Amino acid sequence: MYLVGGVVRDLLLKRENWDLDLTVEGDGIAFARLVANRYGAGLAVFERFATARLAFPDGLKLDIATTRRESYTQPAILPTVQPASIEEDLSRRDFTINAIAVQLNPRQFGRLLDPYGGQRDLRARTIRVLHAGSFQDDPTRIFRAIRFEQRFGFRLERTTSRLLARAVSTSLIQQLSGPRLRNEILLLFAEHDPVRAIARLGQLKLLRFLHHRLCYTTQVKRVVTAVLQALVWWARRFQDSVIDRPIVYLMALSNESSPVVVAAMIRRLALSREQAKNVSAGGRRVDRALKRLTNKGTVRPSQVYRLLEDFSDEALVLLLAKQLSMHHGVRLSLLKRHLVAYVKSKAVKTALTGRDLQAMGLQPGPQYKTILGKLLDARIDGMIKTEADERAFVQKRLDLAGWGKPMLTRETGEG
Ligand code: ATP
């Protein structure tokens, strides 16, 4: 049994990694079953890939695979899998630094298998493929190469770099399915600070695989660069908000592209409905809101609320990143104040409901929404503070509209 892949690489780099990948020469699934029984762990089995995932009661997750050979019948399509030796298993891996294994059986405990010079490349800070057809077999490795290069500050080895450029110049990446391309892009954008990785995608002419007319201007670069700062501010202010960070980067990256281009990119990446909604809302609406919120003249809290109520938190982070990219201190603090006030106002609720309006003698209909909306606005603006204020507010409107019925008492709800 071997520990293999990223965790071995990270052990050698002295980086923390709890993504433990074990691989068994023999029957990985049978072994996973034994471990699950012995330690009361949850077990998910993927027969087709000869792998299993264990979830231990303390939260630890463990992937167990069977050592295997992969054959690529067609470029860019997932390979077929057959059991094989650990050496063959290592030979199908992406880069030398990810093709190191450590044996764990008691008698050979700690034996290191490094047939491709992974340790040498770790020392030389180099990303190197195992063979010339690697990117062709699996073009997702192009994005993986950039991910590791940028994460560790490594360089692509010369031949690897040439092979990568050659693979990029073909239509291989176009043959990748939407979900596989999306997965790679979003993994890249999930890195701590993907700015250089995005610049690298631009430099290597890889952004055209999102869309050939994607607008990657200096201004877009500035916004992308400001996203991290916006995320940090947001996380500090609103600790309960969970942000889909990779999506914010995708929104920033496609921010100046036309709606048609963005829609085509969403289709190409087969984004989920939620992700698609976010990304397509990123463009002009954000600009319009930004203008309104940072211009001179006062904006009431309820107006801010109405302006932003359809924005996801991701879109709000983008809004902030855009303002940050403009380096205008006064407007930035104004926007931050609006954002804080907005998030607070999201918790404001009216005491009265539609049922109360009905009890007050108002016929059910579309005016309920209008009245409750006005009540909420007045609450947000601090014009009314109590339920009695709300009732008086509604009653006044009823009287003005000539719908007057005697005002109801609060205690009984009866006229
Ligand atoms: P990360 O730290 O980002 O999780 P990782 O190296 O652990 O990186 P995984 O995607 O978890 O990456 O993959 C685990 C291992 O499986 C890799 O280290 C590599 O050996 C192998 N592997 C993953 N994807 C590929 C691929 N596309 N081609 C070849 N080998 C791969």
Characterize this entry briefly.
The chain has 415 residues and is an alpha+beta fold.
Bound molecules: adenosine-5'-triphosphate
Beta-strand fraction estimate: 5-15%
Let me know the average pLDDT: 91
Shape: elongated
3D architecture notes:
The chain is an alpha+beta fold and 415 residues long. It is 51% helix and 10% strand. The chain has helices at 6-12, 28-39, 86-91, 118-124, 134-137, 140-152, 158-168, 178-189, 195-203, 218-237, 245-253, 259-268, 273-280, 284-294, 301-308, 313-325, 329-345, 354-359, 367-380, 387-400, and strands at 2-4, 20-24, 42-46, 51-55, 61-66, 68-71, 80-83, 101-103, 112-113, 126-127, 155-156. The model is unreliable at 406-415 (pLDDT under 50). The chain binds adenosine-5'-triphosphate.
Features:
alpha+beta; seven-stranded mixed sheet; two-stranded antiparallel sheet; 20 helices; 51% helix; binds adenosine-5'-triphosphate
How would the blueprint of this fold be written?
Layout: E1 2-4, H1 6-12, E2 20-24, H2 28-39, E3 42-46, E4 51-55, E5 61-66, E6 68-71, E7 80-83, H3 86-91, E8 101-103, E9 112-113, H4 118-124, E10 126-127, H5 134-137, H6 140-152, E11 155-156, H7 158-168, H8 178-189, H9 195-203, H10 218-237, H11 245-253, H12 259-268, H13 273-280, H14 284-294, H15 301-308, H16 313-325, H17 329-345, H18 354-359, H19 367-380, H20 387-400
Helix pairs in contact: 6-8, 8-11, 10-11, 10-16, 11-13, 11-16, 14-16, 15-17, 15-19, 16-17
The site of adenosine-5'-triphosphate (ATP) has 11 residues, from helix 6.
